[in-house]
Specification:
Length: 586
């Protein structure tokens, strides 16, 4: 409390909101007040604070003693740019991109600003793949390819000796650099520590499908295996887990969501075989740790692997003992993790291990539609049972109206799926047909009430976000002095009053990122006209593949939908893991 009070006093001097005192003290520590007085731009480290707000705060405290090229400002801006990039999934940024962003924010010498930020340890500089090379700066002198000072260079810096390809200079925060390096080392350790096991031969011959047999044989011989496929292909890692347990091995599957855990347990026929990844790492689920602190498993299959961010992956791999077999399984067509990194995609691209591609297609009209989207084709499919329905709309208002009508009336009546089992998915949270607008309309129709529990009523469908990147669908049960009581897939969760506003939202409508790793009997995908720019092949693939029995598409984007599907997926995240995995050890 003393730190918060002192921080609030400094914030008041600079005209900053008192509400930032708690977050600033949490971010900067007990000496937050002194830190802000000495370097007001440290306020940029507080989530939600923008550069113009930090600039105003600094001017109020420092007066004429500060300007756009103050080294405290430029260092904070470099860190802020990298933090913002991490929210978009990047673990690093090209140095030229950082310099350009600094120039846009009135920094006169972006190169000097980058060099200062590196020298101060705000960011690290990397030229992966060139550790043993020397690169020339624009004066012709030689500098180490990876150093702790400078490294930003002008546009031709890092071009290398004659005949060499230009070297990409990356800037990164130490937390993500350490995570990627730890993960690369850990994966190499699992690969090298594994011994081939002949006991799996009979299990492979008894597998229910050729793809499952191929997966079992690969795991018998390798410590790390990647497995790709759609929803139906989840039967293959389930068969692997069952076969391994029949051999007396401690085998377990970890999923992204509680819904994924339920589906895996149904596939293996044994609830003990399935955990959520968060539950496994926290110790709330699974076998616990052995005497050395490692997770007590011989085989771990991580399903929904595209949702694995680099920091979680590093913690997971560090928790596995030598000799443990790890399988990363998932659908490479879906959207990536909420956190920074592209672990599954980088492992696949680096060819760091055997890759088993499932030959088990997803069934039915939805499976046929989604399979086409995966290769860039938006095909009309025969849906005699109304498995796929297209609902054209003219504007966002009509999109909201038709969505409510579908969830409340049409899908229950025509498909037999109740409103409680129908999930709405839309492109973003804002806008006239984003999750906020749709949730307001759906609540009014399906569970009207005054919102007496911090905006919520008993029976409201919500999504609880206990940590960044984890979205858990739930239903409001009640509220009291202890907090908001939720039913999360049969598990009671109590959200403290102080955390309700930041971690609970209405959940009749979700974004596709929130819906990744989960499935519902029926899904309504909403594409209003203003959603066109937010569409991509991976977004459409993810949203359309969430429905088990039925998919309705509220379609108002005209030709933007087939264009988005036809556009090849881009490598939309800058990471270092692939290069680290491709670099020979030593």
């Amino acid at each position: 409390p003393e730190a918060v009070a002192a921080t609030a006093a400094v914030l008041a001097e600079g005209g900053a909101p008192a509400a930032l005192a708690g977050p600033a003290a949490a971010t900067l520590g007990a000496q937050a007040a002194d830190a802000l007085r000495t370097d007001p731009w440290q306020l940029l480290g507080v989530p939600g604070v923008k550069p113009e707000q930090a600039d105003g705060f600094a001017r109020a405290l420092l007066g004429a003693d500060c300007g756009p090229d103050d080294e405290r400002r430029t260092a904070a801006l470099v860190g802020w740019l990298l933090e913002r990039a991490a929210l978009r999934g990047h673990t690093a940024l090209d140095a030229s991109e950082v310099r350009a962003a600094l120039a846009e924010r009135s920094v006169a010498d972006p190169e000097a600003a980058v060099q200062h930020a590196v020298a101060e340890g705000v960011v690290l500089v990397f030229q992966d793949g060139q550790e043993d090379e020397q690169v020339h700066d624009d004066q012709g002198s030689e500098a180490p390819a990876e150093s702790d000072g400078g490294g930003g260079g002008d546009e031709d810096a890092g071009a290398g000796r004659a005949g060499q390809e230009p070297v990409q200079v990356l800037l990164g925060l130490d937390r993500y650099a350490l995570a990627e390096e730890s993960l690369a080392d850990g994966l190499a350790r699992l690969v090298n520590a594994c011994e081939k096991d002949a006991d799996w031969t009979q299990a492979a011959s008894a597998a229910g499908s050729p793809s499952a047999a191929e997966l079992i044989r690969a795991v018998a011989a390798h410590g790390l295996v990647a497995h790709t496929g759609g929803e139906a292909a989840r039967a293959e890692p389930a068969a692997l887990i069952t076969a391994a347990r029949a051999l007396g091995l401690r085998a377990l599957g970890a999923t992204h969501s509680a819904d994924g855990r339920r589906r895996l347990a149904a596939a293996t026929g044994d609830p003990e075989t399935a955990v959520t990844l968060a539950g496994l790492l926290s110790g709330e689920q699974g076998p616990g740790r052995d005497g050395e602190g490692a997770i007590a498993v011989d085989l771990l299959v991580v399903l929904d692997a595209p949702q694995l961010d680099v920091e979680t992956a590093a913690i997971l791999v560090e928790s596995l003992a030598d000799g443990t077999r790890l399988v990363l399984s998932g659908d490479p067509g879906v959207l990536g993790s909420a956190g920074a990194g592209r672990v599954f995609a980088d492992v696949l691209a680096a060819r760091a291990c055997p890759q088993i591609v499932s030959r088990t297609p997803d069934p039915g009209p939805i499976g046929e539609l989604v399979s086409g989207i995966g290769i860039g084709e938006l095909n009309q499919v025969e849906a005699p049972g109304k498995e796929v329905v297209i609902v054209p709309v003219r504007d966002a208002g009509e999109a909201v109206h038709r969505t409510v009508q579908l969830v409340a009336d049409s899908v229950p009546r025509a498909i037999g799926v109740p409103s409680s089992d129908t999930q709405v998915i839309t492109v973003g949270h804002g806008g006239s047909a984003g999750t906020r607008a749709l949730n307001a309309a759906l609540k009014q129709r399906l569970n009207p009430g005054p919102g007496r529990f911090g905006g919520f009523d008993p029976g409201d469908r919500v999504v609880h976000v206990p940590a960044p990147g984890r979205a858990e669908p739930a239903v409001v049960v009640s509220a009291d002095a202890e907090g908001l009581h939720l039913d999360c897939a049969g598990t009671e969760v109590v959200v403290a009053q102080g955390r309700v506003e930041s971690s609970v939202r209405h959940g009749w409508a979700l974004s596709a990122h929130q819906a990744a790793g989960m499935r519902w009997p029926a899904v309504v995908v909403v594409l209003p006209g203003d959603a066109a720019q937010g569409l991509s092949r991976s977004w459409v693939y993810t949203a359309f593949s969430r429905g088990e029995r039925h998919l309705s598409v509220v379609h108002g984007v005209d030709q933007a939908l087939p264009r988005a599907v036809a556009q090849p997926p881009a490598q939309d995240r800058t990471t270092r893991l692939r290069a680290l995995l491709e670099t020979p050890p030593g």
